[in-house]
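cache lookup: miss for this entity combination. No prior model stored, computing from scratch. Input as submitted by user K.M.:
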Amino acid sequence: ELKVEQNPLFLSMQEGKNYTIYCNYSTTSDRLYWYRQDPGKSLESLFVLLSNGAVKQEGRLMASLDTKARLSTLHITAAVHDLSATYFCAVDNGGSNYKLTFGKGTLLTVNP
Amino acid sequence: GAVVSQHPSRVICKSGTSVKIECRSLDFQATTMFWYRQFPKQSLMLMATSNEGSKATYEQGVEKDKFLINHASLTLSTLTVTSAHPEDSSFYICSATSGVGIAGYTFGSGTRLTVV
């Protein structure tokens, strides 16, 4: 059974600071996704990482994937209040039987 | 980009009644659709996977007679919560994929179900 572990689960940071959220998973997969969820809303897709070494950046967020280490990171640069949300990583179980397994999520609070 | 429409966004129903939630892929053919449930401050829990024209595959512990899923076309899946009880109150989210890995998964806007 595929397991996805995210840490930290809670992150409170000051505006302007940098931080990294980690996502470890238990079985071989080279399809990993990052989502953002605002309170009361559904998921917003941030990044789709489909190969080892993939790195994608959008604004102050950068995601990377190391399939050998079974690790993905979401790096936040110079955080701003608008980034406050819950961030989920999810891993595809691979093959043709599509199914996502989610981490528990990281609740990010950026304080002014 | 790919869009998935989910309705209703909020619904309040009485205990014992049934509620239907619709999930439509607007600009792509969704070979596979997924239904999730999310409790407050928790992650998404996959309830079932449905492929067009086939019976849904339910996750362990999900009652298939209570949560009826129909995926009659490549653009529409429905989840019916039958004989709803207050403990069924939750946030239900659908997702769809066209089956191509790079396309990823597109999520609907979610349905907040409150059973009173």
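stored under new cache key. Chain B touches chain A through 23 residues (CB under 8 Å).
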